[in-house]
Amino acid sequence: MTARPDPRGRVPLTLGVPDGVDEEGIQRLVHGFYDAVRQDDVIGPVFGRAIADEAWPVHLAKMCDFWSSVLLKTRRYEGRPLAPHLRLPDLSDAHFARWLGLFAETARRTFDAEAAEIVIAYAERIANSFRLSRAMHAGEDTMHLRPIAAPPASR
Q1: What Rg do the C-alpha atoms of the chain give, in angstroms?
Q2: In sequence order, what are the residues at sequence separation of 6 or more whose Cβ sits closer than 8 angstroms to the Cβ of residue 78?
Q3: DSSP for the chain?
């Protein structure tokens, strides 16, 4: 799938199933990403408090289902992904930015450049949707929220 970039040249306007993304790639993405998350000083402790060591295999399988549903439209994921994020009291924009950074690094290692940017665009939309929802649920003024984006690929 070739995506048409937005006027800023960054995020595709229409996201579909990216060429070169398959179940094996999604498994590498999810497992590689969460390996990095668990070692990260910024978001590792948040995940460590939310997911017990013995619960990680189930979480990883659920995240593979989630990303398969998002990227390949398989509908394997059954759940409400926002709810657990609303229960975490200490999430900030710094956490979302770090999540996006690690996710983008992993996506760029896992997929070719075009597919990685589409996968990252999905993650950016999800992160910004969660940020907005968290702020609204907390009764915060959401007018100041500006979208965050993954850092560009290093050259």
Answers
A1: 15
A2: 65
A3: -PPPBPTTSSSBSS----TT--HHHHHHHHHHHHHHHHH-TTTHHHHHHHS-GGGHHHHHHHHHHHHHHHHH------S-THHHHHT-TT--HHHHHHHHHHHHHHHHHHS-HHHHHHHHHHHHHHHHHHHHHHHHHTT---TT-----PPPPP-
Write phi, then psi, for 42 (nearest 5 degrees). -85, -55
Q: Residue 40 is which amino acid?
A: D
Mean pLDDT, consecutive 10-residue stretches, the chain (155 aa), reads: 47 68 97 98 95 97 96 92 82 92 98 94 93 83 85 82
| Predicted pLDDT of residue 147 | 87
